[in-house]
Amino acid sequence: MSKNEVTVIDREGSAQTIAWEPEQTLMEALRDNDLPVLASCGGTASCATCHVFVEKEVFDSLGERSEDELELLVEAEGYRECGSRLSCQIGFDSGLSGVTVTLAPED
Amino acid sequence: MVEPGITEPVVIVGAGHAGVAVAAALRTRGWNGRILLIEAEKEIPYERPPLSKDLLKPGAPEQASPLRTEKFYVDKGIERLAGLSVDSIDREGRAILLADGSRQGYYRLVIATGSRARPLSVPGAQLPGVLALRTHDDAVELKRSLMPGTRVAIIGAGYIGLEVAAAAAKIGCDTTVLEFQDRVMSRVTSAPVSRFFERLHQGNGVRFVFGAAVTAVEGSGRVERLLTADGSSYRADVVIAGIGVLPAQDLAEAAGLECRDGILVDDACRTSDPLIYAAGDVTRFTGSFDGTSQRLECIQNALAQAERVAEDITGSPARSPEVPWFWTVQHGVRLQTAGVRHPEDEVIVRGTPAEGKFSVVYLRDGRLAAVDTIAGLADFRPAKKIIASGAQIDPAAAADPAIPLADAVRAPIPVR
Ligand SMILES: Cc1cc2nc3c(=O)[nH]c(=O)nc-3n(C[C@H](O)[C@H](O)[C@H](O)COP(=O)(O)OP(=O)(O)OC[C@H]3O[C@@H](n4cnc5c(N)ncnc54)[C@H](O)[C@@H]3O)c2cc1C
Ligand code: FES
């Protein structure tokens, strides 16, 4: 069985590959693999501590950002119009296996 | 990370938001000694906010939302004891005593016992149909008793009472909220925000009775009506008491730890015993930003204190303190607050409440002390940063929603 994995570039710039379990949001996968994602709202698009950058193709393949998500992101450190996402709003998708995400800087 | 000679585990009492986060944060910080998480409830540790929100939606599943997967605890080597409560602490012996009579030594002890719903203390409060909402079992019982047409009386217009009112109204219950004060959420927000949420609820069929002092619950075999001090009577099939919480400090008190409406902790979450920490709803501490003694009942505080405990146990450097924040969702409208408002703060409304989306900023000595954002988060993060910086704000600019809040800052942000 092939495993679902994502490559994560942390805030120091080093890359690591982590497992992404079905039924987890991307935030949960990051957090449970000890990446420094505080997720202080438990994944309800309230805190933006789970902010990541995704590649353009991935960004385009994901759905629209909700108004709450967008308003939080616009004010977040390093916001990218076509790249910033709250990882708690990215549900598991085996089609995303193998992608690379980058942790956004902390405020 | 573990010093040679440490054999006893870090024992965490209570696997709520704070307890689970302490365990996780210890591992993130490289702690490789034993961690034992003890919880009175049988279920896998779960999230509380959805209990009064998503779980009560018509057709929503009754299952709780786990904080972490079962696999997480196994992978991280976090030992769990569930369905067993801690009865007492033997500080001299550095051990706790469990309800099954067993004894467990600790290297460090973390008390994360949270809070419990303040019980209604009027005659008849024990009648079936009088409920409170704290646990998943409470939420399931409540959900099952809310049917279209059910007469629901909610005592207390705090955020939990109001979230329940919104859910009940959505189901089609005949919903009345009785509140002693003259407005909703009076403890946590200002009048303009209260008025906005009152109108929102009324527009969705919720009735309010302000200045209501409930004196008794009556019924034969089950609740049938509520009585108030002015002699009024309100028919009810279900009563929900949302009258605040009490810190679950009994363990700490019995062990002689300093408590005063909460276990007293210092800025590293240490209790009066240096080997014992406390985190979450159960603590009382001095706020980093306003310097007042406080107890905060919110996820943010539970998680931030958990991080602090893990930092201190592992000797990791402390992160700078986070401005406390909180959210509630009623009838699909989110109120999100940063900072701690004081009743005497200057209140400045940004935007037009009648348009359904606005913010309220609170100034203390000219500095931004807190913000409420309603149905929009644009001001939330900027406000958090400004509060943390202690910057002075120009009230006229802050009152103009066309001016970004960051541009209302007067002096250059001083370095903390
Ligand atoms: C319905 C509801 C909705 C909420 N909504 C929000 C929200 O939207 N946003 C927000 O920020 N906050 C919200 N809160 C508040 C938030 O849930 C609390 O601040 C948070 O749960 C505090 O975490 P804690 O770990 O301190 O306590 P808890 O989560 O209460 O955990 C304490 C645990 O300790 C256990 N325990 C107690 N005594 C013992 C003992 N002697 N032995 C063993 N175990 C013991 C208890 O069973 C409990 O599981 C809500 C609370 C409720 C009840
Ligand atoms: S976890 Fe808070 S916004 Fe994603």
Automatic annotation (TrEMBL), chain A:
Q: Which metal ions or organic cofactors does this protein require, according to UniProt?
A: [2Fe-2S] cluster
Q: Which Pfam families match?
A: Fer2
Keyword Transcription appears in the UniProt entry: no
- What domain of life is recorded for the organism? Bacteria
* Keywords for the protein's UniProt record, in alphabetical order: 2Fe-2S, Iron, Iron-sulfur, Metal-binding
Residue ranges constituting the 2Fe-2S ferredoxin-type domain according to the UniProt record: 4-107
Query: What PROSITE patterns would the database entry show?
Result: 2FE2S_FER_2, ADX
CDD domains (alphabetical): fer2
Task: Name the SUPFAM superfamilies on file.
Answer: 2Fe-2S ferredoxin-like
Instruction: Write out the similarity annotation.
Output: Belongs to the adrenodoxin/putidaredoxin family.
What's the protein called, per UniProt? 2Fe-2S iron-sulfur cluster-binding protein
Automatic annotation (TrEMBL), chain B:
The cofactor named in the record is: FAD
Q: Which SUPFAM superfamilies match?
A: FAD/NAD(P)-binding domain, FAD/NAD-linked reductases, dimerisation (C-terminal) domain
For this protein, the record's Pfam families field holds: Pyr_redox_2, Reductase_C
Q: What is this protein called?
A: FAD-dependent oxidoreductase
What superkingdom does the record give? Bacteria
Write the record's keywords in alphabetical order, separated by commas. Answer: FAD, Flavoprotein, Oxidoreductase
Domain FAD/NAD(P)-binding, by residue range, is 10-306
Q: Which residues form the Reductase C-terminal domain?
A: 325-408
Origin organism is Arthrobacter hankyongi
Q: Which residues form the signal peptide?
A: none
